[in-house]
Amino acid sequence: MSTPVTPENTPGGISRRGVLGLAAATAAGTAIGYGLGRGSADQALDEGATHPFYGDHQAGITTPVQRHLYFASFDMTSRADRDDLISLLQDWTEAAALLTAGREVGKTGAVDGPPLAPPDDTGEALGLGPHSLTLTFGLGPSLFDREGDTFGIADRRPAPLQELPLFAFDLLEDPISGGDLCIQACADDPQVTMHAIRNLSRIAFGRAQIRWTRLGYGRTSRTSTDQQTPRNLFGFKDGTANILADDADALKRWVWADDGWMAGGSYLVARTIQMTIENWDRVQLAEQEAIIGRSKGEGAPLSGGEEMTEPDFSMRSSTGDFAVPSTSHVRLAHPDLNDGVRILRRGYNYVDGNNALGQITAGLFFLAFQRDPEQFIALQTSLKTDALNEYIRHIGSALFAIPPGLRDGEYLAQALFEP
């Protein structure tokens, strides 16, 4: 693997356009555009904005949530061995450093190579800029379960990395669940995310292939105080009480793992949650609010106050019932009723067209980071009586170990392969 890419250390053979692009991205990236006051992050987008690829933790977890997502799950090919896995992670590391800096992949990029050979880079992101691209990589339980321990890592499997149990109301589809590896690409331009996954998939050819993908838009959570709470496809504000990037104590307690080679990493739960849009649209407003536990306009808890007001779960209405209903989503998911358990959410809306009846196929691509998957398991178990279950279907599920960040000269998950 080559040395990390920086403006001062540009490997030989990089395309001329890539060198100029990195310089522009570096200059523009000094001002990400997120510190301009509450809500301004949703308005001021900088096509040259970048996030560091190297650091203590992988980007794309506490990074301010971008507008677009392209998520890809991969399976290693049947003939791949340990050397193939390591070389793939090395090649992905090198390419990811280039992509997140707004550069083309390969030695000659998209247009500077030999005219009679395929270009190193597919070229659809030329001139677009990095648009705050982050790439987050993970390893699935199945990677450690290969028969015969093909990759020589079975004894290095983190204890928390086990297949998620089947939850109440799960209707999981195998083709959109699981995977040996994953890449989460987030950016403020959808073509930038497409370009990243397309080129990383191309690099994986012969060693790994895509198992399933999910395109997301319109983030459904916030990770920064500069971001307004977004709305999901049911029209309600979502993720009001999410863990934020500046809450170091909460991140340490609930997000960052501290076990062995995973120290500084996290565990990602990815769930495809289909919403029965047409059924929901026929529900009275008051009932919708009772199901969620918040007002649809302000997003305030039904116990009163404003959006950020803590719910009062002991308050009762004039009828003697709880003001925040006992089967409401907010109540059942709240840390106060789950031994304080919290997760860091980073989800997106998705639309997959329509079914044969003309109904919209859409929903929430739920992404959550936690130091131990048991946090998600506890919360999801508590939601078995959630009134919202009548209007959603969990159809896809996956769990991935997200290795810690990288130092200069390292490759993804390098500590996994070292004694």
Name the features.
single chain, 419 residues, alpha+beta, disordered N terminus
Describe this structure in words.
With 419 residues, this protein is α+β, with helices and mostly antiparallel strands. It has one domain (55-76, 129-158, 169-419). It is built from 8 helices and 9 strands. A hairpin with a 5-residue loop joins β7 and β8 (360-370). The two termini are 20 Å apart. The model is unreliable at 1-41 (pLDDT under 50).
Shape: globular
Beta-strand segment tally:
9
**Rounded radius of gyration (Å):** 22 Å
Work out the helicity level.
10-25%
Strand residue percentage: 15-25%
- Which consecutive residue ranges, at least 5 long each, have pLDDT under 50? 1-41
Largest sheet: 9 strands, antiparallel
Q: Write down the domain tally.
A: 1
Helix-strand pattern, N to C?
Answer: HEHEEHEHEHHHEEEHE
- Counting DSSP H or I runs of 4 or more residues, the number of helices is 8
| Average predicted local confidence, pLDDT | 89
Structural category is alpha+beta
Give a concise summary.
The chain has 419 residues and is of the alpha+beta class.
How does the SSE layout of this entry go?
Layout: H1 16-29, E1 68-76, H2 82-100, E2 134-139, E3 181-187, H3 190-203, E4 208-219, H4 248-254, E5 266-275, H5 277-280, H6 285-292, H7 329-333, E6 344-345, E7 348-354, E8 360-370, H8 374-382, E9 392-402
Antiparallel strand pairs: 1-3, 1-4, 2-3, 4-7, 5-8, 5-9, 6-8, 7-8
Helix pairs in contact: 2-3
